[in-house]
Design a protein that fits this description.
Blueprint (H helix, E strand, L loop, with lengths): L3 E7 L5 E7 L2 H14 L3 H14 L9 H13 L12 H4 L6
Antiparallel strand pairs: 1-2
Helix pairs in contact: 1-2
Length: 99
């Protein structure tokens, strides 16, 4: 039996919308893992994903510099750190590999 997640979505009119989603076990596991990684509730991660989907349709994301910084920090945190040396110098990126 699949779990149902109920999320509150704040609309432009400051009212709440409740939705119920049937989510596959695989997606549930991914959502739960991401929520655990972010130390957030599953509902908050799902709401963030929905908000991100619609923000992609705008040319410029409107918001404060602080919000932009928080979004950037969240994006950076979503990538695994590497424990080895990474050569990101211009020379290594644009190396001429021709014989």
């Amino acid at each position: 039996m699949q779990k149902r997640f109920l999320s509150q979505i704040e609309t432009a009119y400051n009212s709440d919308m409740s939705i119920t989603l049937d989510i596959s076990p695989e997606l549930q596991a991914q959502l739960a893992a991401e929520a655990s990684r972010r130390n957030q509730r599953v509902e908050d991660v799902a709401l963030s994903a929905i908000a991100d989907l619609f923000s992609l349709n705008t040319d410029v994301k409107k918001g404060s510099a602080e919000q932009w910084r928080r979004d950037l920090d969240e994006w950076i945190a979503s990538h695994r750190p590497v424990s080895h040396f990474v050569d990101d110098s211009r020379e290594s990126i644009y190396a001429d590999d021709r014989p």
